[in-house]
Amino acid sequence: MNAFSRPRPGACCISRLFTGVLLLVCAYGMSPVPYTYGTPSTNGPVAEGARAELTNISFSARSDGQGYVVRVQASQKIAAYGMPRSVGENELKWTLYNTALASSFHHDAPEGPIQRFSTDQQDGHVILHFHLDRDVEPDAYRDRASNDVLLNLAFPGGTDAPRPVPTPVAESRPSDGSAAESSPPTRTASSSSSGGSSSNATAASMLGGASQQARERWRLDKVVIDAGHGGKDPGASANGIREKDIVLKVSKQLGRYLEENLGIDVVYTRTDDTFIELEERGKIANRAGAKLFISIHINAARSRSARGTETFFLGQHKTEAARKVMERENSVIRFEENTEKYEDYDEQALVRQVLAQSAYMRQSEKLASLIESQFEDRVNRRSRGVHQAGFYVLWSASMPAVLVELGFLTNPTEARFLKSERGQTYLASAIFRAIRDYKQMYEKGITRTSR
Known about the structure:
alpha/beta
């Protein structure tokens, strides 16, 4: 026997695995399915208790106006699903393998190009049929931060896309004068709810026909505040201050305002000088069932004259300045033990993640705009505007999420303001007021769409 005829190690195992796959096919009474993402069990149908159960289906416009996203929420990770395929004129079929509809399953009214849709349970799988009013380019993928799977319905060429109305951002004005606010926020009547927060809020448009119980469940009652850096990661340092120290103080001050004035349940990613990995920060928010994620940072630049606040939400950076801020904040991963997990965070992955988070993007942009307006109009800071960038810390947060840069500690004037107790109070107050205004608009939308 020569080397080429010698049995390969593991050949018997491969043979047995192939036999198992054939048995699986026979058990389901179907032919092998190409383009299946994930690996179905090779030991026959999955036991009922082991199946992922679908709990909700929602619809939202993409933040770029170039299509719609169907979000399927499940009790656990869906092991495998097929790619959507055309079964008629403007009709799609999408199969989710080894799944079932939960007893509490509910769905929103279809939107955008989807005229109607149906769910069908066959042979231990859920099959979704979508009837559309136009041609679309469908694609399915997972949400990296949850058990959800997404169906992206892109408009070919974007010609039929409803264009979103951009949120106006106040003009930046070069002023480093003292803050206009003379006191922290005063207590207002609490509008929080004790209802559960097992799911993350997306948009009021996803709440049509909701009951009072559903409205309570979607109340903005929990916020995660992320003080950037910490522990072995000091963040930026200049003019005698360290970023990690100042942002922690502002974060705690903001949390007190939210708890005392709005009755909001606040969760902190850190409350002391502790290092938390970037990816873990968003996951903390997911596990808490939070409705907002606020990551607080301080900027730095080579030029001592650089100044002003800016607020970001997840997306492709459009300016060189935004890219530099993103790269500086993302460089924190050098303090982490396992940086390989970020190798998949490339440009294509960012596009997919932005699509996955499209239901939250307009809310994130709106909150960012409110924060910058408060900084400029009420605290007399120079606003550098609202921007998009691929911050790792925002990737894993499945909710409206923003990253706030409070100013430049490399600027001596701003450094003095950031270091002062008065400055920290004003900055925390500004973010509080923005969240308060966002909460009022958000919950007003829930009430309006639930009638």
